[in-house]
Amino acid sequence: MRGQGRLGLTLALSALAFLAAEETAAQRSPLRPTPFTQVPPAPPIAAEVTDDLRRMRNYPDQPPVIPHSIRDYQIDLNGNKCLTCHSRKFTEQSQAPMISITHYQDRNGNFLGAVAPRRYNCTSCHIPQTNARPVVDNTFRDVDELIDTPSGRRD
């Protein structure tokens, strides 16, 4: 068939141009320092912050971060290691903060006698802190900081 050779050549040239552009873009991008056709070495795992200090939250209803190591914690259908310290029953002995009362509510707002199934997987909202450098610079400013600046000061 006529034209198929030209179409194949056009597709091949387009693919090469794309790969060359991707490689050039990868050299400029801090998010992708290597071309997508290469597998970069994995970065080292950042050390966890395990000082057990509570961190200030950046916004209302932010889930608190986990200030201790949870490596090898079991959180599955058979058990939840977090509840051995943070459930209402064990907070007096462990001196850990009790999980929020909202974790005992179902999606309709009814209170339950145990942790609601939708709140059982703690690490879907709560995360351990690490000393990792952010991949992208963060310019987040707390709402109190915004209110107290001269341009945002309330009179």
Based on secondary structure, the structural category is mainly alpha
Question: Main beta sheet: strand number and arrangement?
Answer: 2 strands, antiparallel
Would you tell me the overall average pLDDT? 82
| Residue share in helix | 25-40%
By DSSP (H or I, 4+ residues per run), the number of helices equals 4
Oligomer state of the chains in this structure: single chain
End-to-end gap: 78 Å
Number of strands: 2
Q: Strands of the largest sheet, in order across it? A: 1-2
Give the SSE string: HEEHHH
Structural notes for this entry:
The chain is mainly alpha-helical. The protein has a domain at 1-42. It has four helices and two strands. The protein has helices at residues 4-28, 83-86, 91-94, 143-148, and strands spanning 75-76, 79-80. A two-stranded antiparallel ribbon has the order 1-2. The longest helix has 25 residues, at 4-28. It is elongated and about 75 Å long. The mean pLDDT is 82.
Descriptors for this entry?
155 residues; mainly alpha; two-stranded antiparallel ribbon; 25% helix
Layout of strands and helices, then pairs:
Blueprint (H helix, E strand, L loop, with lengths): L3 H25 L46 E2 L2 E2 L2 H4 L4 H4 L48 H6 L7
Antiparallel strand pairs: 1-2
